[in-house]
Amino acid sequence: QLYKEQERLTMGTIKALAKVLDTRAPGTYVPRISSVKIAQCIGQELRMDADSLKSLEYASVLHDAGEVFVPKDVLAKPAKLTGKEYKMVKAHPAAGVEIIKHMKALKGVTPIIMYHHENYDGSGYPKGLKRDQIPLGARIMAVVSAFESMISKKPYRVAKSTSEAVMEVSRNAGTQFDPKVVDSFLRVMRRKDVKGAVKRDRRESSHTR
């Protein structure tokens, strides 16, 4: 019972933090319910243990928290970023880790936040890790956060349809994304409950705009 209470308290704190961050750029930090679900389903497919699944759930909510330190006009810039601006963006995973590093319950979340912008072929940031050097949770979050970003309306581009975003993820298997994770993602995206969750989230986000 104490463990359950601790878990509820941790999730409550994470959601409160996400809400506070969201006041700065509405719609940026509070994740879609479907994204949390997709991440969890992929983790289950890849046989992650219970603790790793819990860390993945927390990371689904907090993975881009460090963007709070990136100027708004840089995040929303429609043109190509300058070297200095891109440097600011590349610093956000480490900044996200700074926000949560004092919470013992979130120790397993740190590597997911830190490395979810690494690419499978080594072309990502902050360390240029590749393949299995990237923690599995971060490889999963890379796919889920890219998908979520593609189906979200941004100041500089329209949202893709769900099927367009799924195809884009599939196209980048082996370069940006781990092919094993992409295979699981494609299976998960065929599930009725997941399709329904994505549809509901898209409907709600279009109503709140």
Write the layout of secondary structure elements.
Elements lengths: L1 H21 L10 H13 L4 H13 L9 H4 L7 H8 L1 H9 L9 H6 L20 H15 L11 H10 L7 H10 L3 H17 L1
Helix pairs in contact: 2-3, 2-8, 2-10, 2-11, 3-8, 8-9
Give a verbal description of the structure.
By secondary structure, the chain is mainly alpha-helical. It is 60% helix and 0% strand. Helix 2 packs across helix 10, helix 2 packs antiparallel against helix 11 and helix 8 crosses helix 9. The protein is globular. The N and C termini lie far apart (40 Å). The mean pLDDT is 85.
- Count of DSSP strands: 0
Q: Strand portion, in percent?
A: under 5%
N to C succession of SSEs: HHHHHHHHHHH
**Count of DSSP helices?**
11
Percent helix, as a range, is 55-70%
Rg of Cα set: 16 Å
Q: What structural class should be given to the helix and strand makeup?
A: mainly alpha
> Are there runs of 5+ residues with pLDDT below 50, and where?
none
Shape: globular
- Rounded to the nearest angstrom, the distance between the terminal CA atoms is 40 Å
Overall pLDDT score: 85
